[in-house]
Amino acid sequence: MSSIVSFRVDKKLKARMDRLRHINWSELLRRYVESVVEQEERRLRASKDFTAMKRAVEEMDRLAKLCEGSEWIGEEEVIKWRRRRFSYSTQA
């Protein structure tokens, strides 16, 4: 079953559309609206995959437990690698 959707365009644009009679405006707009809806649905699905987010949190927690009791400190490791990268990039 179909629904009717209407929208307004100014008179000048409508006159220009009327001159292009070979274009099926209804079909063109229907396809365009469908493509925009599909793009937006994909964007929303990609940005809110709660299952993937939950798995990521669980994996982070699992990895954090592996480091418990160790002397390794992530912050110091990041600083060390940044210093190495910076000192390497400044050598001529």
Overall helicity = over 70%
Enumerate the spans where pLDDT stays under 50 for 5 or more consecutive residues: none
> Roughly how many Å is the radius of gyration?
28 Å
Structural class category: mainly alpha
Number of strands: 0
Largest sheet: none
Question: Globular, elongated, flat, extended or rod-shaped: what is the shape?
Answer: elongated
- The rounded distance between the terminal residues' Cα atoms is 71 Å
Q: How much of the sequence is in beta strands?
A: under 5%
Order of helices and strands: HHHH
How many domains? The number is 2
Mean pLDDT metric: 89
SS field, number of helical segments: 4
What does the model show?
This protein has 92 residues and is mainly alpha-helical. The chain folds into 2 domains: 11-47; 50-89, no CATH class. Helix content is 71%, strand content 0%. It contains 4 helices and no strands. The protein has helices at 11-19, 25-47, 50-66, 74-89. The longest helix has 23 residues, at 25-47. The termini are far apart. The relative contact order is 0.04.
Features:
single chain; 92 residues; 0% strand; elongated; mainly alpha
Summarize the SSE layout with pairings.
Blueprint: H1 11-19, H2 25-47, H3 50-66, H4 74-89
In short:
The protein is an all-alpha fold. The protein has 4 helices and no strands.
